[in-house]
Specification:
elongated; 17-stranded mixed β-sheet; twelve-stranded mixed β-sheet
């Protein structure tokens, strides 16, 4: 094992031997079997810079651990499976920050430690596992990753161009995923408050399954997951109640366990769940649908546009004590008068509060908030 006693910079090119500490690393038929480097933890933080160049070479194990910040850059030029640089196992277990940019080389397995790793993949990685830490992974161009486990922390995954990921698992922490045109097969966002933003997919018939996850890491955390369709202009139906498929015309997105939604610029229909939802319709004439008292209670609409957007309460039985299904009667800003089925609004602290009484006791059984001052009319509702 090579001991890192100072800041070092080394080039790996398939032919030139190099030393770290007292250890000399040699190539055998353009193959480096094992390069393990250690920066003593009782020494100052070291800087390790590795530059990958050339083509037609490979490495079995590249492992860096201890008290070091690591940077790995890739300027290799192999363009086919016959001459592309290949790394079987790349392990980053340092106490510092690791930044790895593999724009062209292929890596079979890339694993991290408990600190921050910033990884960019431009060709292929079979498996990436980054453990704890606030990690960032970018898959760019036509890059692909088979399986990715980002572990705990506030992690960030971004794909651009036609980059694709297979299965993605994120654990505890407030994670953010921005998915590009190449899509993915399956993404699990894990616990806490996570956000995923979709783009139109190149393969318009592609299916992407995303689970927002449930539960929180600590009692002070919140399980509030947001799904973002703002990149789309077609009319979308986005149902937060259970598992549903959002058909965009440029990809089919199967979503479950999301509390909040951002719609696109088209005429969207957004269906609330029994959880507390925050709903943003985006541009276009949107309809916000609430099918039960539980679905409407405590929810918030962020961008209600009077004259185009609608609030649909028609599925709710406005009189719980009478047979059949009654519709609400809009009474403007008037007070409840102990009659079941009344719907009113009031303005408070810059918000508009919509309240309904379904049992006739003169008190609100639900409150729906619009985060703006709106002088509501009966035509703003579907009752």
């Amino acid at each position: 094992m090579g001991t890192i006693n100072s800041n070092i910079s080394r080039t790996l090119n398939g032919s030139t031997q190099f030393s770290v500490g007292e250890e000399t690393y040699q190539w055998f038929d353009r193959w480096l079997d094992n390069m393990s480097l250690w920066a003593p933890t009782d020494a100052p933080m070291r800087t390790v810079s590795l530059s990958l160049t050339g083509n037609s070479w490979g490495a079995g194990v590249i492992r860096i651990s201890g008290n070091a910040n690591v940077t790995i850059t890739d300027s290799t030029n192999g363009a086919t499976d016959d001459n592309r640089v290949y790394i079987s196992y790349l392990a980053l277990g340092t106490n510092g920050t690791s930044t790895v940019n593999l724009k062209n080389a292929e890596v079979e397995t890339l694993v991290g430690g408990g600190n921050t790793e910033n990884v960019t993949i431009g060709y292929w990685a079979s498996y990436i596992g980054l453990n704890r830490g606030n990690d960032s992974v970018s898959v760019v161009g036509n890059g692909e990753v088979g399986t990715m486990d980002l572990g705990r922390g506030a992690d960030k995954l971004t794909t651009t161009g036609n980059a694709w990921v297979g299965a993605v698992y994120m654990a505890r922490g407030n994670d953010t995923v921005t998915l590009g045109a190449g899509g993915a097969d399956y993404i699990s966002l894990g616990r806490d408050a996570d956000t995923i933003k979709f783009a139109a997919l190149t393969d318009k018939g592609q299916h992407v399954t995303v689970d927002g996850g449930e539960g929180v890491s600590e009692t002070t955390d919140k399980d509030i997951d947001t799904v973002d369709f703002s990149a789309f202009s077609s009319a979308l139906t986005i149902d937060l109640d259970g598992q549903s498929t959002v058909k965009t015309g440029a990809g089919n997105f199967h979503i479950r366990n999301f509390e909040n939604v951002i719609g696109g610029s088209g005429k969207d229909t957004i269906i609330a769940s029994a959880d507390v939802n925050v709903l943003k319709g985006g541009g276009g004439a949107d309809t916000f649908v609430f099918e039960t008292v539980a679905a409407v209670k405590g929810d918030k609409i962020l961008d209600f546009t009077q004259g185009s957007d609608k609030i649909n309460l028609s599925a709710i039985d406005a009189n719980a004590s009478a047979a059949g299904s009654a519709a609400f009667k809009f009474i403007g800003t008037a007070a409840f008068s102990d009659v079941a089925g009344q719907l009113r609004y009031l303005q408070k602290n810059g918000d508009t509060l919509i309240q309904g009484d379904v049992n006739g006791d003169g008190t609100a059984d639900f409150t729906l908030t619009i985060d703006a001052l709106v002088t509501l009319k009966s035509t703003d509702f579907i009752l």
